[in-house]
Amino acid sequence: MQWLNVIVETLIKRHPEGDIIVSSGVSPSGTYHLGTLREVLTAEVIAAEVRRRGRTARHLHIVDDLDVFRKVPVNINPEWERYLGMPLCDVPSPEGVESKSYADYFLQDLLDAIAEMHLDIEVVRSHERYRAGAYVGVIETALENVEAIKTVLKEVSGRELDEQWTPIQVLENGHIKNRLYRSIDTTAKTVTYIGSNGEDVVASYADGQVKLSWRVDWPARWAMLGVHAEPFGRDHATKGGSYETGKEIVQKVYGAEAPYPVPY
User: Fold this and answer.
1) What is the 3-state composition of the chain as percent helix, strand, coil, each rounded to the nearest 5?
2) What phi and psi, each to the nearest 5 degrees, are found at residue 28?
3) CB 239 within 8 A of CB 197
4) 68-73 long-range contacts, Cβ below 8 Å, gap at least 24?
5) pLDDT confidence of 164, banded at 50, 70, 90?
6) What's the rounded Cα separation, in Å, for the pair 195 and 180?
7) What integer is the mean pLDDT of 38-52?
8) What is the distance between the alpha carbons of residues 9 and 232, in angstroms, rounded to a whole number?
9) Confidence of residue 36 (pLDDT cuts 50, 70, 90)
10) Which DSSP letter does residue 15 get?
11) Are 93 and 52 in contact (CB under 8 A)?
């Protein structure tokens, strides 16, 4: 497959030493399907070919389970509408198992497929990393560079951002909210933002109460994990899309290089 040869040869040339990191990622918002597998298998075959050529490679699959629950799928009880706005990792499992979440429930299909297909994948749960404090550094960097990020988003995507725009979202009363950021305390690892009633609210960014918005989370993840290649849907690859803005943000804000893009 010539496309695979081109990608792998480029990666090996760009990164002559160490592991080559290939990433995939899916939000467990509903049933995993063939489109999901398309991304996972594309990343997997790149990593496998790198290994076949004598180099070491890791395939990291990011489960975006701190994403907000936006819509109740047709195969889920409509009563789950009560959980809209919550992180997927905190929404109850549709099967009523208290020890499992909505994200666990849908992710299990992918985990079963990975086992049956004997894929060599490291599954990374986004909510676990946020709540363990792994994102502390990249959140601080984002908040130190708000104006630079806004400039990228405006110039690359053509978006007009509200003056109150910030690169973070907060977990407020169990729901993900967009709130106006006011200040950061890097010693206490907290941010202060304006609540729904105009009051100052303090939240820790060391335990998952604060998360980066998508267009910042993606490049922050690349920098944090050292990702060298990543497949993604062509919606992200459009002019001014999230890959283009991410490429600029990861370079200008995080001082790292964007991964080799593999749109599909």
Assistant:
1) 40, 20, 40
2) -80, 60
3) no
4) 68/175, 68/176, 69/29, 69/102, 70/29, 71/29, 73/29, 73/30, 73/31
5) confident
6) 8
7) 97
8) 20
9) confident
10) -
11) no
The DSSP code for 144 is H
- pLDDT average, residue stretch 226-232: 97
Q: Torsion angle of alpha carbons 47, 15, 249, 86, nearest 10°?
A: 30
Sign of CA dihedral 82, 85, 90, 93: positive
**Can you state the angle between helices 102-117 and 34-52, rounded to 10 degrees?**
50
Count CB atoms within 10 A of the CB of residue 155. 12
pLDDT tens track for 129-142: 999 999 999 999 99
96-110 pLDDT, tens per residue?
888 899 999 999 999
* CB 95 within 8 Å of CB 77: no
Secondary structure (3-state) at 244: helix
Contact yes or no for 224/134 (Cβ under 8 A): yes
Confidence of residue 6 (pLDDT cuts 50, 70, 90): very high
Q: What is the dihedral of CA 181, 183, 189, 193, to 10 degrees?
A: -40
CB 109 within 8 A of CB 31: yes
For residue 129 the two structure tokens come to: 């990393």
Residue 176 and residue 86 in contact, taking contact as beta carbons nearer than 8 Å: yes
E-assigned strand segments in the chain: 20-26, 57-63, 122-125, 168-172, 175-177, 180-185, 190-194, 200-204, 210-212, 229-232, 260-263
